[in-house]
Amino acid sequence: MRMTAMTSLERVLTTLGHQEPDRVPLFLLVTMHGARELGLSLRDYFAHAEYVAEGQLRMAHKYQNDCLYALFYAALEVEAWGGEVILSDDGPANAGEPMIRKPEDMRTLKAPVVETSPVLGRVLDAIRQMRARSEDAMPIIGVVIAPFSLPVMQLGFEQYLTWMYERPDLVKQLLQINAEFAVAWANAQLDAGATAICYFDPVASTTVVSREQYLDFDHRLSKDVIARIKGPVATHVASGRCMPLLDDFAQTGALAVAVSIEEDLALMKQKVAGRVSLLGNLNGIEMRRWTEAEAEAAVKAALAAAGRGGGFILADNHGEIPFQVPETTLMAISEAVQRWGQYPLDWVSNER
What we know:
Order of helices and strands: HEHHHEHEEHHEHHHEHEHEHEHEHH
Number of strands: 10
Number of helices: 16
Strand order of the largest sheet: 1-10-9-8-7-6-5-2
Radius of gyration: 19 Å
Helix content: 40-55%
Oligomer: single chain
Strand content: 5-15%
Structural class: alpha/beta
């Protein structure tokens, strides 16, 4: 027997409590599709808080999504620090030339003041509008780039990895500056009305660095940052591998971890069941070419691997669905969740 339908917030809180809600929650993390819905260019869309709020509300209604997503684009954070941002007509904005050119520049770097930053203020305004228009039934997900991952945009990827070996003292000083900013930025979003924080930390992934490097540079730092964030936190490694880090992430205080399509979702669920919830793991790159039948099959595979017993939110594995993914595919994903994601997932036992 199916239970009475829950609100999105009730659904998410139930699954984070490792119990089965009415259906598997869906986090369809579309950041750019709202612009198309409103008939706007991406440049105009992200220039106005009211456009982003409206786009997110329309996307949630259209696809029966279980969250509103406050991510504009990742490079927005480095933009707030005074860094260059390159806008695009068909994809997310990217960081331009690194803002830190010499190791010594890290000694005098100062973080932006969240309360006086125009670009950060635009995000906060969008969150306030989403909260005012959605009341408390819909989770709003704020976003911060983890202190360990922000230097990719501040220094450039190659330079960052080089200085991690050659100047670890200065890198750790930069990470501490970033940590103070991350805490302030996360808590400002929560104060504005965000329900939880997505803590993007792709450099922590074992796709990028070893577990030993993660433990040396990031683990204690993230544990301290997450402890000072005044709301729930989910760690996201943006499609990178993280199987060896699941216990480490749990120790930081993260309630959920977003996982990669490149790892065994069922095995990961088994490893953390009852301790940490999982988000994942639809392939956002392949999603651009999926037929409706392939979208449904991918949804079913993820639900079968991790849906039983709660503790699972269906999402893409990168945290940002490409602008090129067609609406028909997004709708097919949504419809598949409505059809196959209703608890209890009896069909899983029948098909296995």
